[in-house]
Amino acid sequence: MHYWLVMPAAGTGRRFGSQLPKQYAPLLGRTVIEWALAPFIADPQCRGITVALCAEDELWPQVAARLPAITTVAGGAQRSESVLNGLRSLAGRATEQDWVLVHDAARPCLSGEDLARLLTQLAGHDTGGLLAAPAADTLKYAPAGTVSAVERTVDRTALWRALTPQMFRLGALRKALEAAHDAGRTPTDESQALEWVGARPQLVAGSAANVKVTTAQDLIVASAILSSRQRPGTERVMRIGSGFDVHAFGPGDFVMLGGVRVPYGRGVVAHSDGDVILHALCDALLGGAGLGDIGQHFRDDDPKWRGADSQGFVRGVIAMLEERQLAVVNADITVLAEAPRLGPHRESIRRTIASLLKVAAECVNVKATTTEKMGFLGRGEGLAAQAVVLLKSTL
To answer: 11: phi > 0 → left, psi -120 to 50 → alpha, else beta; which?
Structure first.
């Protein structure tokens, strides 16, 4: 069999408590939405993926650059509108009888076993259905809908928590959602729309570990679940990389060090902004990942990098690492120069590098030394930097 995936991802995640929408929150070296997409990208039965995005979404292109080709459509104000737009975009590619799976962008912990169970159990079903988990907690009913006095305890025996993916025929699901919208009704999931037109979706037992990220605390749970899936008896790969860069002084009145503009009576001779710290750091990161050196990826004879901000180089390298499930543990950086003095700018440099590497500030160390007046550095002809990083596997 084969199927198509539609993923609504137009939400802003107001309850998440972050400037980032929850689908773009970092999680073990990837974003939440990358984890959510991963099982389907890896499944040869998936014919194509459509993601419904908010019109103002500026973060998706960064994620899409790390993924295979994925179709996008405009999302709606409600989840059901986003799903409907995704279904309509399949016209001409899929038939009315093709299966469509709808999966939340904020569910990063779907296992391959659960996906396989859903596909197997529903393959011959007339309507389709959804993954669900039996309600495990005692349920209380409070009619005000907020924290208030309990009116009664609800019998949980027959209650299930709806999960995703939910799996239905393309034509039937599209018509059910269109009927709901025409009637001014907003279903909270795809199954409810089918129920409103008289269908009886099938429940397929799924794992309670298929959590939905709604608050920042849910990320802790998701991280623990994903980490626990590491193969027994294996250890995470740790890699060390080192980098070195040097630039001669030239005309100017400042130098860039670690993404910070440091006033000085001279500048540096460079094709980009000549940030020796960030250039050495890129080489260390690339070396640890076995990806060559900075010159292979950001050539110093390419006009598009003329005067470039080296922070963009670091972000690009971090994206390469994340694509390979690698993350930074810590970085140790040494600047070699008679001048300028690093002391007044050390903490700003440290914080900037930590942000670029997506680690806490205490995981970055920045220090400086001289060559005791020896050599070209000792004569004040230029400056250099050395970086050492430790990388870890995120799987």
So the answer is: beta
Q: Phi first, then psi: what are they for 272, rounded to 5°?
A: -95, -145
Secondary-structure class of domain 3-228 per CATH: alpha beta
Find the Cα–Cα–Cα–Cα dihedral 247, 343, 351, 227, rounded to 10°: 90
pLDDT in tens, 375-388: 888 898 899 999 99
CB 344 within 8 A of CB 309: no
Gyration radius (Cα) of the chain, Å: 26
DSSP type of residue 230 = S
Domain boundaries, given as residue ranges, for the chain: 3-228, 238-393
The secondary structure of 77-128 as a DSSP string is SSHHHHHHHHHHTTBTTB-TTSEEEE--TT-TT--HHHHHHHHHHHTT-SSE
Distances (CA, A) of 131 to 122, 167, 211: 10, 9, 12
Measured CA to CA, the distance from residue 322 to residue 318 in angstroms comes to 6
Separation between Cα atoms, residue 99 and residue 377, nearest integer Å: 66
Residue by residue, DSSP assigns 328-368 as EEEEEEEEE-SSS--GGGHHHHHHHHHHHHTS-GGGEEEEE
Mean pLDDT of the chain: 90
**What is the DSSP secondary structure assignment for residue 53, as one 8-state letter?**
E
Phi, psi (deg, nearest 5) at residue 8: -75, 125
User: Which phi and psi angles does 6 have, rounded to 5°?
Assistant: -120, 130
What is the model's pTM? 0.62
For residue 56, give the amino acid letter: E
Question: Is 238-393 a CATH 3.30.1330.50 domain?
Answer: yes
Q: For the segment 296-314, what is each residue's pLDDT rounded down to a tens digit?
A: 888 888 888 888 899 999 9
Q: How long, in residues, is the chain?
A: 395
For residue range 173-215, list pLDDT tens digits in order.
999 999 999 999 999 999 999 999 999 999 999 999 999 999 8
Q: What is the C-alpha to C-alpha distance for residues 395 and 32, in angstroms, rounded to an integer?
A: 14
